[in-house]
Amino acid sequence: MPAIFQSLQSGFPALRPARFAASAGLAALLLTAAQAQAFGLDDVAALARQRSQTPWREASHAVPVELAKMAYDNYRDIRFNAASTLWRADKLPYEANFFHVGRHGDSVRIHEITTAGVKPLPYDPASFNFGKNKLSPETWGDLGHGGVRFFSNLNSPTYKDELVVFTGATYFRALGTGQRYGLSARGLAVDTAGGGKEEFPRFTDFWLEKPAGDAKQLTVYALMDSERVTGAYRFDITPGEQTTTQVQARIFMRPAATSGNSATVATLGIAPLTSMFFSGENQPRPGDFRPEVHDSDGLMMATGDGEWLWRPLQNPSATVTTSFSMKSLKGFGLMQRDRAFASYEDTEARYELRPSAWVTPVGDWGAGRVELLQFNTPDETHDNVAAYWVPEKMPAPGQSLDIAWQISWQGKTQQLPPNGWVTQSRRGFGFSKPGTDLTGQVQYLIDFAGPALEALPEDAKVEAISSANANGRVLESLAYKNPATGAWRMALRVQRLNPAQPVELRAFLKHDNHTVSETWTNLITP
Fold it and tell me: Is 90 exceeded by the pLDDT of residue 268?
């Protein structure tokens, strides 16, 4: 498989235990003008490789006492001064500003790459407006920054909107034209599911490449570190109706001798996405005037064998992990397919404007699985969904992994299967005659649309093909045309045999031995 595993070489000079730009290795990156032009992923990877060979030490999160005691609302009153915005004075197509370090002290070091060299951008309290807070930041020293965000003329030629944000662990999120922030991506997920403790790597350093006056994309480098992995990342961000983030990663597995943890990594989650599903058409919430509340309504996958899969998301009562194994992957994403305001009726959150994130592998990732983790959330302020790719072949401690992917942040124009797709999944029963015994039964009404279905003649005979695992028995599987919309609807009724066990369902539409829709796949939880 093209994802390359490389054995680490010995003999690299060890870094001092310092975690940030003051280390000898990072100071060495203050390059000459000629060297700066050659700065790239290899330079960050050299630091990641060196760091993987030194004993891991947890970063200090100490912050000044007056900052540590600050209430959340007071922290929100700290704003970056517009006059200090990076690259604004040069009238470049991209600008950047920084988040202030928060109460918990997670900070990053930021550097700028220019034709004159690579230089650090240290914390400067003069770059911030502290609002009504009475503080003494001039005594704090170089705290670093809490994160970085970038701006571009995404929606207007005269005003620069937020384009992409990097803040917290390895989280980042981006926007396309007319979108509002919703789901997030991460650089890497480590042991997210499986009962053990999840490890959260952190981006500790960023390098921002100063754009040219006519730059069509923005380039950012990042250095990642954690107990059992280190990594180097390059992000090429291209704004547009579908903003894209092209990601190149070189991930180093720490040997046990440097990690301080004898346990090896069980799963690497590649291109992880994180989102929120609180309620939807398949799981309405009684008492809420809003029909649906979610940042994403389903997981879509395209296998190398040509099958397209759709898994509606849920807000389960207990944690549920499912996976989809395949020989190769063409793409996956957490999608917000429903783009109608009437589906949400929320004038503040505007869920219909939240982006979908479609991940496309660069090169052949080989065999593996898409893993979906869902857990309960009591409200809409917490993410409760994660999806990522787990390679079948894991790099061993002391090895590295080169891998790349693209994320498209999509709005009304989205990646869809070529033939047909699910437009909604409703769960429940309509009118039943008095005395009808529906014990243990579950019914779904699934609507499909797409070019293969639209091309069918009026008298076409469409079959509903469905199946259940051993804990379910399909009682009814029927496809018919919806007279109100002209689209096709499937009615699927299932008997759950053991209520304490899950039921796995699959269903799709077929015409004349041709599959005319993606495969709807759903889990009835215990």
Answer: yes
